[in-house]
Design a protein that fits this description.
Layout (H helix, E strand, L loop, with lengths): L18 E14 L2 E8 L2 E8 L14 E10 L12 E12 L16 H6 L1 H4 L3 H23 L3 E2 L5 E2 L10 E3 L7 E4 L4 H9 L4 E9 L11 E10 L3 H20 L8 E4 H8 L13 E2 L20 E7 L7 H13 L6 E6 L2 E3 L8 H11 L6 E7 L1 H19 L9 E5 L4 E3 L6 E3 L26 E6 L2 E8 L4 H10 L4 H14 L7 E7 H8 L30 H6 L8
Parallel strand pairs: 3-5, 6-10, 12-18
Antiparallel strand pairs: 1-2, 1-4, 2-3, 4-5, 7-9, 8-9, 10-11, 11-23, 13-14, 14-17, 15-16, 15-17, 18-21, 19-20, 21-22, 22-23
């Protein structure tokens, strides 16, 4: 027996005078004398039901979130509601069955709810009834299906890799799982399928993908979770150019099948240096221009103390804010506090009005510096200029954060506007300020670009990596690289970032050894699925596109995880909790 023969989106005016049965949750109840009007909700939408109170004595007890099975006749509505698909019909009830009752809910189950996020997450099963939440998870399913369809059609094979694996430092802190069978030994939850997918290339599969669960013990933020999903992709005998074509094909299919809109390809490309220099970020939001300006030449021989060069060469970056001449002292102080979070020490504000530059710093500048600043920044009436000086990357990053904050506040964006860009030419390594050594910018499995093959060991900080990120609307939605496939080169890179030969053998010996048995050139990429869905659905947080996420404190309010365990469990795992 089909308890629910119809979903509400299947009901329409062509069915007028037909007798049907509708099943769903009570979204709203309105009383008009003997008649009760109920908005009956299922996963496809709302249907208005009209019930005579005399029909069923229990109807007086019905309230929000009761589940009803209503049989009746479809009729045309007199007061058409154009906001819902079934707005031109209603169901005149002939019988009503209360399938399930409900207590008064701790939150309003509607798109506009009154609940705080922790309440929503504690009662996630109620939060997920909200149409806006169901739409996001349904869209997530459509996006995954479109990605699978493209990859399946283009010869990529879906292969599962282990979640329980060996602890192999890859950049993030791991979750460790104690072994009951092997006392004192641990598995690690896989940070990603990185090593296994490369082993699959050595195994000769040539094209692989996986919708993979990944685990990283990191501090949380709006676009990060402890356990998350990647759409992981790897291919042999495929260079960066061909891989880009396939990834753009994946996204085109997602837009066509899931979002029902066309996507313009190929995507724009931008070097890491250009992205940082012009937009202050290696994941620039290109929906608005607002490019940063460089004022090094303006203040090359300045006597203005804040912008005078010391022993270490620094860069002076500027952000032109349209109508920014009206910024108040309080607003400038708030902007200064923001850039200080990114390591900057100060922020200088100029105003341009009636052809004149003004601000507290102007009296310390020469006339030629004033004229040059106006020219370089191409100032227009009412513009404001916010400047700071620091080491190049720090200056770019700090002002880039301010650019993003002010730009998002100043612009209203079309929810269907998506600006994709490939960020390429990343540095292969960067200095580690804590240890004084160097670390891999992406991860230690990334191959240097051909031009740096002979020099990346002797001049590591000059080498560029064969790595790439796909960015959309200010978020990195995918990242990857062409991989090292030489045993010697892989060992050299490990040693370069500080591993001893013994550590390499203990942690990665099986992996490096595999390169000795005919390893093809290969490379790949991984989509952060949760983040991609967040961007494509215009969600404000990654938690809105994950069914059961953790909160900002790394807890699950629904299940109260993490929680303590029994002494018996600890003993079985050979563990002892040490009090602080």
């Amino acid at each position: 027996m089909n308890m629910k023969p119809y979903h509400h989106h299947n009901l329409n005016a062509s069915m007028i005078d037909q007798t049907i049965t509708a099943v769903g949750w009570v979204a709203k109840r309105r009383n008009f004398g003997q008649l009760v009007f109920i908005d009956l909700r299922d996963k496809t939408g709302i249907l208005q039901v009209v019930i005579n109170e005399d029909l069923a004595p229990t109807i007086k007890e019905v309230r929000s979130e009761f589940i009803l099975s209503v049989t009746g006749v479809i009729k045309a509505r007199k007061d058409i509601n154009p906001n819902i698909p079934t707005g031109d019909i209603e169901l005149i009830a002939s019988s009503v069955v209360v399938v399930s009752t409900a207590q008064t809910t701790p939150m309003i189950v509607a798109d506009d709810t009154d609940a705080l996020e922790d309440t929503r997450m504690q009662y996630r099963y109620l939060d997920l009834r909200r149409p806006v939440m169901q739409e996001k998870l349904i869209m997530r399913s459509k996006i995954v299906r479109a990605m699978r369809n493209y990859l399946d059609d283009n010869g990529f094979i879906d292969v599962e890799t282990p979640m329980l694996t060996k602890s192999t430092p890859e950049g993030s802190r791991e979750y460790l799982v104690p072994s009951r069978v092997h006392e004192g030994e641990f598995y690690a939850l896989a940070q990603s399928p990185q090593i296994f997918k490369q082993l699959l290339m050595i195994a000769g599969f040539e094209r692989y993908y996986q919708v993979a669960r990944c685990f990283r013990d990191e501090d949380l933020r709006a676009d990060r979770q402890l356990d998350f999903t990647q759409v992981d992709i790897e291919a042999s005998f495929m260079d960066e150019e061909e891989l880009f074509i396939h990834i753009e094909g994946v996204m085109s299919q997602v837009f066509k099948d899931a979002l029902k809109q066309e996507l313009k390809t190929p995507f724009r490309r931008m070097s890491f240096f250009e992205a940082l220099d012009k937009y202050g970020s290696d994941k620039p939001d290109l929906r608005f221009d607002w490019a940063l300006k460089t004022l090094d030449s303006v203040f090359e021989a300045t006597q203005f103390g804040l912008f005078a060069q010391g022993e270490t060469k620094k860069s002076i970056k500027a952000l032109v804010v349209p109508q920014g001449a009206s910024l108040t002292r309080k607003e400038v102080d708030e902007h200064t506090a923001l850039v200080k979070k990114y390591g900057a020490s100060h922020l200088v504000h100029f105003k341009y009005s009636e052809g004149q530059l003004s601000g507290s710093a102007v009296k310390l500048m020469r006339e030629d510096e004033i004229a040059s600043l106006i020219e370089v920044c191409q100032l227009k009436e009412g513009d404001g200029v916010l400047c700071l000086m620091d080491e190049w990357e720090k200056a770019c990053t700090a002002l880039g954060a301010l650019r993003l904050a002010l730009g998002l506040k100043a612009h209203t964006f079309d929810p269907h506007h998506f600006e994709f860009v490939w960020i390429v030419d990343f540095p292969m390594f960067e200095a580690d300020s804590e240890t004084g050594g160097i670390v891999a910018r992406h991860h230690p499995f990334t191959r240097p670009q051909d031009a740096y093959m002979d020099t990346f060991i002797s001049k590591p900080l000059e080498a560029l990596a064969n790595a790439y990120d796909l960015v959309c609307n200010g978020y990195e939605v995918a990242g990857g690289s062409q991989r090292i496939y030489s045993s010697k080169m892989q060992s050299d890179v490990f040693e370069l970032i500080g591993f001893t030969p013994k550590q390499i053998n203990d942690r990665f010996g099986f992996f490096v050894d595999a390169f000795n048995y005919g390893t093809p050139p290969h490379g790949g990429i991984a989509f952060g699925l949760d983040r991609l869905v967040m961007v494509l659905t215009n969600a404000s947080s990654i938690r809105d596109v994950i069914a059961f996420p953790k909160n900002a404190s790394a807890r699950c309010p629904l299940t109260s995880a993490p929680s303590g365990v029994s002494e018996k469990q600890l003993n079985e795992l050979h563990l002892l909790i040490q009090s602080k």
